């Protein structure tokens, strides 16, 4: 089933059940705490928080999402994109647990001929928060599954909050067993409280149902919070990963191989002369290329331009990683003018601004590639000089100082330094380089603390700093919805 059809069926299913169909909001959240929209509920937040009255009691949407904290997983797991689409249904004080469970199960298991996704029931495992007997009972009633098929997971997986006092509630993640080639056998009774790492690609999480029912008075961590009492109005917020359901329904190994993403990999094969599937390290690069080309295009489409901080720096990092991955695959010519139109042709079927605004979008992307190519050129000369010096002195290791200078002054990623050194039969004092980086990071952190006094989930931006050198440090805070 192609992605367009999965999308259509989702909205039709919920529209038939009385939900207002709401178009995706921009990726740029209207929220000072968020760089980008990481989940479908974000545009509805004022309704959930009781700040505004919703115009309808129930709604459905397919929301564009970007999760920068997932960047390190891209291409390594089968299921994390920096860009993806989240299909959701929302109830504002209307139906609750039972309705949400029935609606989700029905769509997943209804035969394809009847408008559903036709997923094999024997592979589906609902999960609930440990001890949520109400949800267990409702799952058994809705599905006819025995209690032994319902997985109980701890609050890390199955309790949602925004990381601050306010609404919270238990979740039900719906998992799909992809079979023994994806991980070890498991016993439902002893799974949890945390999902074992080695099962995450086997028991693929496809949908999360959030039962917003509690008023939280304090949130100290994902597992440590105080419930003050019940919310006056109970809400439903769900998110189904479109790309993940597509990979299942299209019989693909991972989300980078689905119909709207894979053509970029195919184009990259053509440009590099390498085969996807021939080498595991190269395969990660192919997948990074496909993901990052798409996410950067979507971000530019919504108005982001490359820059040295905040949103602009995330975009810059995505574009540079795509270009660099292509170089590591052996293609040194300009790549974005070849790759991005392929992604546009696929995503443009849904987001027609990509077509109408293409002249601007492509110009922004291609100019950034050209600038990065200049950086690489300048750095390459410095690198060659450094490598020559080492050899002349009869050494075999490029010093940490030299690697750091390349990084710091020319924005030269360490991966590239390592790779180019290897080509010349040299090693790099990587350990030393890392400690210089750590020292610099400490300085940047101290600096940010003294500037802002803020804390937040800066992990993703620390990665940016690692790779591309210092930039103005912005300790953006992200909401817990990024990893609920
Ligand atoms: P995971 O545990 O696999 O990282 P999550 O628990 O962080 O997923 P949720 O926050 O519950 O994900 O988001 C709802 C749904 O959105 C998930 O069930 C999944 O189908 C989808 N999803 C989440 N993150 C991504 C991503 N990075 N790429 C693609 N789909 C995603
Ligand atoms: Mg999860
Ligand atoms: Mg989840
Ligand atoms: Mg996650």
UniProtKB/TrEMBL annotation:
Limits of the Alanyl-transfer RNA synthetases family profile domain: 1-484
Stretches that traverse the bilayer: none
GO cellular component, one term: cytosol
Organism domain of life: Bacteria
Enzyme Commission designation: 6.1.1.7
Record's cofactor remark: Binds 1 zinc ion per subunit.
Keyword Glycoprotein attributed: no
GO BP, sorted A to Z: alanyl-tRNA aminoacylation
Reaction it catalyzes: tRNA(Ala) + L-alanine + ATP = L-alanyl-tRNA(Ala) + AMP + diphosphate
Cofactor(s) essential for the protein: Zn(2+)
UniProt keyword annotation of Aminoacyl-tRNA synthetase present: yes
GO molecular function: alanine-tRNA ligase activity; aminoacyl-tRNA deacylase activity; ATP binding; tRNA binding; zinc ion binding
Annotated compartments: Cytoplasm
Predominant location: cytoplasm
Keywords: Aminoacyl-tRNA synthetase, ATP-binding, Cytoplasm, Ligase, Metal-binding, Nucleotide-binding, Protein biosynthesis, RNA-binding, tRNA-binding, Zinc
The protein's role, per its UniProt record: Catalyzes the attachment of alanine to tRNA(Ala) in a two-step reaction: alanine is first activated by ATP to form Ala-AMP and then transferred to the acceptor end of tRNA(Ala). Also edits incorrectly charged Ser-tRNA(Ala) and Gly-tRNA(Ala) via its editing domain.
Annotated family: Belongs to the class-II aminoacyl-tRNA synthetase family.
Free-text domain note: Consists of three domains; the N-terminal catalytic domain, the editing domain and the C-terminal C-Ala domain. The editing domain removes incorrectly charged amino acids, while the C-Ala domain, along with tRNA(Ala), serves as a bridge to cooperatively bring together the editing and aminoacylation centers thus stimulating deacylation of misacylated tRNAs.
Protein name in the entry: Alanine--tRNA ligase
Residue range from the parent sequence: 1 to 484 of 900
């Amino acid at each position: 089933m192609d992605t367009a059809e999965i999308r259509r069926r989702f909205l039709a299913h919920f529209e038939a059940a009385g939900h207002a169909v709401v178009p995706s909001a921009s990726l740029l959240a209207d929220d000072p705490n968020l760089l980008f929209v990481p989940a479908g509920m974000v545009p509805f937040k004022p309704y959930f928080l009781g700040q505004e009255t919703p115009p309808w009691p129930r709604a459905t949407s397919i929301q564009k999402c970007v999760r920068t904290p997932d960047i390190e997983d891209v291409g390594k797991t089968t299921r994390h994109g920096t860009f993806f689409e989240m299909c959701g249904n929302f109830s504002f004080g209307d139906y609750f647990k039972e309705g949400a469970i029935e609606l989700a199960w029905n769509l997943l298991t209804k035969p394809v001929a009847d408008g559903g996704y036709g997923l094999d029931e024997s592979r589906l495992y609902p999960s609930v928060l440990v001890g949520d007997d109400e949800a267990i009972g409702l799952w058994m009633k809705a599905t006819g599954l025995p209690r032994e098929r319902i997985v109980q997971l701890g609050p890390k997986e199955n309790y949602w909050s925004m990381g601050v006092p306010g609404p919270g509630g238990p979740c039900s993640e719906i998992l799909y067993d992809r079979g023994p080639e994806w991980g070890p056998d498991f016993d439902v009774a002893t799974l949890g409280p945390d999902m074992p790492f080695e099962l995450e690609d086997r028991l693929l999480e496809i949908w999360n149902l959030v039962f917003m029912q509690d008023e939280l008075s304090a949130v100290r961590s994902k597992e440590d919070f105080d419930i003050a009492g019940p919310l006056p109005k109970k809400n439903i917020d769900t998110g189904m990963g479109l790309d993940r359901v597509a990979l299942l329904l299209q019989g693909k190994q991972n989300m980078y191989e689905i119909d709207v993403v894979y053509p970029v990999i195919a184009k990259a094969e053509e440009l590099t002369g390498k085969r996807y599937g021939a080498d595991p390290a190269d395969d990660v690069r192919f997948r990074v290329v496909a993901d990052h080309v798409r996410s950067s295009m979507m971000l530019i489409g919504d108005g982001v331009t490359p820059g040295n901080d905040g949103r602009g720096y995330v975009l810059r990092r995505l574009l540079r990683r795509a270009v660099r991955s292509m170089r590591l695959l052996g293609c040194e010519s300009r790549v974005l003018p070849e790759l991005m139109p392929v992604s546009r042709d696929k995503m443009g079927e849904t987001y027609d601004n990509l077509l109408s605004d293409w002249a601007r979008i492509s110009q922004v992307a291609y100019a950034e590639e050209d600038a990065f190519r200049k950086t690489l050129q300048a750095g390459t000369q410095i690198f060659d000089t450094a490598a020559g010096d080492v050899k002349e002195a009869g050494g075999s290791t490029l010093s940490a100082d030299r690697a750091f200078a390349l990084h710091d002054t020319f924005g030269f990623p360490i991966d590239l330094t390592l790779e180019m050194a290897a080509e010349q039969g040299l090693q790099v004092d990587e350990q030393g380089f890392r400690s210089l980086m750590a020292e610099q990071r400490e300085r940047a952190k101290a600096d940010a603390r003294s500037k802002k006094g803020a804390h937040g989930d800066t992990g993703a931006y620390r990665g940016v700093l690692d790779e591309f050198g210092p930039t103005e440090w912005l300790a953006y805070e992200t909401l817990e919805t990024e990893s609920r």
